[in-house]
Amino acid sequence: MPIIIYFSRKNENMLHGEIKNLSRGNTAIVTSKIAKELNIEAVELIPAKEYPESYQEMVNVAKKEKIKQARPEYHLAVPDLSDYNEIIIGYPNWWGSYPMVIASFLENYDLAGKTMYPFCTHEGSALGSSMDDLRKSCPNAIIEQGLAIHGSKSDMANKAVKHWVTQLILNKNK
Ligand SMILES: Cc1cc2nc3c(=O)[nH]c(=O)nc-3n(C[C@H](O)[C@H](O)[C@H](O)COP(=O)(O)O)c2cc1C
Question: Can you tell me which atom of ligand 1 is nearest the CA of 59?
């Protein structure tokens, strides 16, 4: 069975054009649903430097990180992934792709031969260029079809999650 590695940010975010303060990030909500469906562990990728609570500040920081192609440091409770052949990787869409902290993770591990199942939450751009970016970053991994959930609908994503998990992951692990 796979492991889930995810990054998610709580605090201020934009939902349907309005700034809301989230006590739990959208990607974290979807992560819990996937973990429950599969009865597996989810491990959070925590940036070493805390991101701003303010949405506008966060947007600016993320933009700078993307322009600089920064590789922010992070903590991950499971440093050794060699026991896992399959990795479910979750992230919010930031500026059209995965956040730079995900890029850091992808570069820190040898993911050759592993099967990756990407999912994201977003506010309209779905997976953006993240699938292409993943393929470029991990050319020797098998990248399966991604799942995109609108962030504001994360609470209601049970059906989409179940479908994705069943079609792609459970069928493969039968
Ligand atoms: C810095 C930043 C950049 C974002 N860029 C995009 C984007 O390019 N396209 C999009 O659809 N949503 C974008 N969003 C919205 C998030 O993808 C969406 O709110 C997501 O559900 C947040 O997940 P989280 O709560 O797990 O962090 C952005 C949000 C932030 C904070």
Answer: 1
